[in-house]
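Q: Could you predict the 3D structure of AI-2E family transporter?
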Amino acid sequence: MINKEKQISGIAIKQVFLLVIILVLAGLICFNLALFIPSVLGAITIYVVCRKYNFYLQEEKKWKPWLASFVLMLASLIILILPIYFIADLLIDKLGNAQAYMAKFNIFLEKIHTYIDNKFGFDILSKENMDKVKGSVGKISTVALSGTFNTLTVIMSMYFILYFMLEKPRLFEKILTSSAPLKRANVSLIGDKMRKLIIANAIGIPVVAIGQGVVALIGYFIFGAPSPVLLFALTAAGSMIPVVGAAIVYVPVCVYMIAVGDTGPGLGLAVYCLVIVGLTDNLLRFTLLKKLEDIHPLNTVFGIIMGMNLFGFMGLIFGPILISLTLLLIQVYRNEFSDNETHPELQLPDKDDDADNKVDLIL
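A: Sure. Here are the predicted structure tokens for AI-2E family transporter:
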């Protein structure tokens, strides 16, 4: 006699079958539209940043939806996109000639190595390791630059998608909310956490990076560092890397200046960067980033590595968001299918006094 308790119910079979179909179709969509994934991520990022202003203009000021959308798109382009694109374009322009760049980099690295070896008797890198470093830097540069060449196409596609999000925001959020196969508390948790993560990554990290880059640029000009504008772009990009930060750029530059005989300016630049640039970093992080979502450094490290491989330069922002989103979805999965009905982490977000409290999905 068959034990009926061990039989798989017809409902469960239907659920599994439907889930398989959904996953297959989603996989086909993602595979064939993979080129537009950075554009979609960018559009969602800017939508979250502009969301409350969009509702304010459309619902409080009674602006036409198309006018509010175009104004916010223009503002985001000037404030958010152009500074990042400027740094990317600068790196492309300066490092576009890969052969000439690598020749200069090899001379730069050789002078630092020779100086440290002669001065302190410390062979910081053997010839074999030096060749490995040069090869690795060349590969990283090529990957970063090749991923950045399509930035303009990504931006154009991103704003095309963003317009339709901003024009009818209530409809867009209703579709997202109704499509999520989750409890309302989990949908609210995802919306609140994602809003904080996106704001921290899209605004906090670039502001800190550009702030450090500008302060370092002043020092590069004062002390006569080689290619100060290029070093500004590299310092801004390097400051996004946790732990080492901007030091990964200005420390080798200071050693190089001392190695070629500019001892005074090199030491002056070292003191300037350690004190002024370091103070700027701490000031911005403790005043700005502390008010935003606290992101673990490992999320940023692995997010940047993955993001650069997937999206090129834009991956500096999207990579950490995807890592944080993955961890968040694991938490939501545990909460969704746990036997306990009450979870302290699923408390609904505090009520805002903004106009955007009118929807359930808090982006």
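Q: Anything worth pointing out?
A: Residues 43 and 160 are 9 Å apart (CA to CA).
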